[in-house]
Write a structure and sequence with these properties.
Number of strands: 10
Strand content: 5-15%
Mean pLDDT: 77
Low-confidence stretches: 324-330, 559-572
Strand order of the largest sheet: 6-7-8-3-9-10
CATH superfamily of the largest domain: ABC transporter type 1, transmembrane domain
Radius of gyration: 34 Å
Shape: elongated
Helix content: 55-70%
Oligomer: single chain
CATH topology of the largest domain: ABC transporter transmembrane region fold
């Protein structure tokens, strides 16, 4: 690890003011150290020679004042450094989450979400030690030794030479130990990220693991990783303790060397008592910041290692679909009136030999009802990912009303889309709040109408608190079919022009699935629907039917259903 990572300063503009105050307080503390040593030497020398208390009273009061101000400067430096750490952590977390969202699900699929979560929480919390202790101590290590050396040189040049010769030994030993510490700490952080990620994955899949009797093997895996992390942590602590011993020993030997030569010259009468006291008081202060920065280096390595992983993610290029070009002047797309055209669109994921989509041509008109059928891996979800701009076409072009899709801001585009994935996410809040996620200002009546349209009203009314019932983490208090119905109600309430449904009836019983298909078939005429299913026999044909096979899109013959009377006419 570098003594000072410039990327942390580059990504922490919000903390620069706090860091400037920390450096200023460090400069003040350096001057106070010199004043304190001079006053203390004067008081001790005066007391030894029998100088009266009235003569020394002024120096004593000044010494007390210096001690108070030095304590205040030290406290203020740590407070501002902690505020700097909080600002940096907040800024990095926002950037990390925003960048991960812009990278999209295809990137997250290649990185364990649990490890990213550990990185954004426990990992970045380690920056407290970096900013609150290591960074201020690094400032003092750069200022105090040189200031002490100059002050001692004015008092006794021989002692200054001895200090100047022995002073570089401390950073040399610190660097040698730090090279080994870097490897050990990186391994410790990797194991922590792996442990956190694996534990989160196991907790999320615990019901499935228990169902198939695989809970015990996973517990053994967690135990093995935990034991490996424990061993690595103890190894890191051992290195930290040994490095502290090495630095303390080097500083003690250097201080003893200065004390011996000062004592011999004092006995020979070549040095005054006050000068000898001043040199002996300042000598430990010259080595102390270097020893302290070596100790704080170990405390800050975990946070710095986590920050490097964050920077790697932030440096990952974002797909062009998430970084829009300048929008066409005077032209705003509206999916209630504009046509979506896919011309020769292809999609290939990194590390895969076969294309997910190959030369897809499709025209989607406002109010269209389109069903995409095909087996798993045929490319259905990939086509939805292109429309959601979670992925970027590797070939071909997508236009909306004659405008290239990449020229439309992502936020503006997604505001016109409702999406129900195969595994919808429910938050730890009430049923009503989950339904109103995309329409937070919706009235209770509108929420109830959306739930009725999705076939969820009946089971919601039988919940302990009705629409105010807490669904638990990821909606685990509900069945998979109930979670799907709430997600559909959320999409119906939002009333976006384009509705994308990925296997909407996969987790529903036959009655609920039929009710849902009837509700979907009666959507308002100006809402475009694209529905994905494994087989055209699994759902009623709605409008145009297309099949996907190994990324190739073909239109199948399908009757165009006349929609029944609008069931959702009251839905806003």
């Amino acid at each position: 690890m570098k003594p000072l990572d410039p990327r942390l300063l580059r990504y922490s503009a919000a903390a620069r003011g706090y860091l400037a105050v920390t450096v200023a307080l460090g400069l003040a503390a350096t001057g106070l150290i010199l004043i304190q040593a001079s006053l203390l030497a004067r008081l001790l020398a005066g007391a030894a020679t029998g100088t009266g208390l009235t003569v020394l009273a002024g120096a004593l009061v000044a010494l007390v004042g210096v001690l108070v101000v030095r304590a205040a400067a030290s406290y203020g430096g740590e407070v501002t450094a902690l505020r700097a750490a909080a600002a940096v952590k907040s800024q990095l977390r926002r950037r990390l989450v925003d960048h991960a969202l812009r990278l999209g699900p295809s990137w997250l699929a290649r990185h364990r979400p649990g490890e990213v979560t550990t990185l954004a929480t426990r990992g970045l919390d380690g920056l407290d030690a970096y900013f609150a202790r290591y960074l201020p101590q690094l400032v003092l290590a750069c200022l105090v030794p040189f200031a002490v050396l100059i002050r001692v040189a004015f008092a006794d040049w021989i002692s200054a030479v001895v200090i100047g010769v022995t002073l570089p030994l401390i950073p040399v030993f610190a660097i040698l130990v730090g090279l080994h510490t870097k490897t050990v700490t990186q391994r410790q952080w990797r194991l922590l990220a792996r442990l956190g990620g694996h534990f989160l994955d196991v907790v999320e899949g615990l019901p499935t693991l228990k169902l198939f009797g695989r809970g015990k093997p996973q517990a053994e895996v967690i135990g093995a990783v935990t034991e490996e992390y424990r061993a690595t942590t103890m190894s890191t602590l051992r290195v930290a303790f040994l490095s502290g011993f090495v630095l303390e020993l080097a500083a003690a030997l250097a201080t003893a060397l200065v004390a011996v030569e000062v004592g011999l010259r004092l006995l020979a009468g070549h040095m005054s008592y006050q000068t000898a006291l001043l040199v002996l008081l300042l000598t430990p202060e010259a080595y102390l910041p270097l020893r302290a920065v070596g100790a704080q280096f170990h405390a800050s390595t975990e946070g710095a290692a986590a920050a490097r992983d964050v920077f790697e993610i932030l440096d990952t290029p974002v797909p062009a679909s998430a970084t829009p070009n300048t929008q066409v002047p005077g032209r705003r797309v509206c999916l209630r009136g504009d046509i979506i055209t896919l011309s020769g669109v292809s999609l290939a994921y990194p590390g895969r030999d076969r294309q997910a989509l190959s030369a897809v041509n499709l025209t989607i008109r406002p109010g269209d009802r389109i069903t995409l059928a095909g087996p798993s891996g045929a490319g259905k979800s990939s086509l939805l990912a292109l429309l959601l701009r979670f992925a970027e076409p590797t070939g071909g072009r997508i236009e909306v009303g004659g405008v290239d899709l990449t020229s439309i801001p992502v936020g503006e585009w997604r505001r016109q889309i409702s999406w129900v994935p195969q595994q919808p996410y429910l938050f730890t809040t009430s049923v009503a709040a989950n339904i109103a996620l995309g329409q937070p200002e919706a009235s209770p009546q509108a929420i109830a109408r959306a739930a009725e349209a999705a076939g969820a009203a009946e089971f919601i009314e039988h919940l302990p608190a009705g629409y105010a019932t807490e669904v638990g983490e990821r909606g685990l208090r509900l069945s998979s079919g109930q979670r799907q119905q709430i997600a559909l109600a959320r999409a119906f309430l939002r009333d976006a022009p384009l509705l994308l449904l990925d296997e909407p009836t996969a987790h529903l019983d036959a009655v609920s699935a039929l009710q849902l298909e009837e509700a979907i078939a009666t959507l308002r005429a100006d809402r475009t629907l694209i529905q994905v299913t494994h087989s055209q026999n699994q759902t009623r044909d709605i409008g145009r039917l297309f099949t996907l096979d190994h990324g190739t899109l073909r239109q199948a013959s399908s009757p165009c259903l006349a929609p029944p009377p609008a069931l959702l006419a009251a839905t806003p």
